[in-house]
Batch of 2 targets.
Target 1
Amino acid sequence: MKKHVAIVAIFLVLYGVFVIALMPANWLVGQIKLPSNVAVAGVEGSIWQTNISQVKVDDIVINNVESSLSLRDIVRRYTDVGIFYGKFSQ
């Protein structure tokens, strides 16, 4: 009986890890309540490598935003997120 419980527990832990690792960024952004002056369009990728086609804050538009998050940095408690963007227009 203990062996079956251990196998089920290992399966559930691995399932949780894979769900988080493969989580789509567009689903995650949909779960976050953004301020009314912020609009995000064209979110693609996973939570580890995300591409956003456009971010609009008030009247400022930022195109081609890319972000990256490293599991190694999370484990080391160094939560630095790399964010890169192109074409800035107002």
Note: The chain has one domain: 24-89.
Target 2
Amino acid sequence: MRSSSGQLTRMGRHPAAGPGPSGGWRCRACGLRRRLDVHHVVKRSQDGSDFDLDRLVALCRWCHEQTDAPYERGRLIVTARGDGQFAFDVVRKERSLPTWAN
């Protein structure tokens, strides 16, 4: 599936936040079997909840780190679609030069 910007989008479904056996012990973004973290789609500091399972998703450590990566490197954006559905987009933005450098 492609997002409106034309980037490849992966959709994942978690069974209850699912890092456990019912979730296949797999990262919901890349599908690999690695050590899993629970990612808060809405950060706790922004009133996210530890109990709203439609906004928690199991990610491997590498994918979880990409959710806070600089945009120049490629940031993993996780969007909750409701009913346990998530969209995963990697967004890259070129670093712009300061106006004095042009």
Note: The first strand starts at residue 10 and ends at 13.
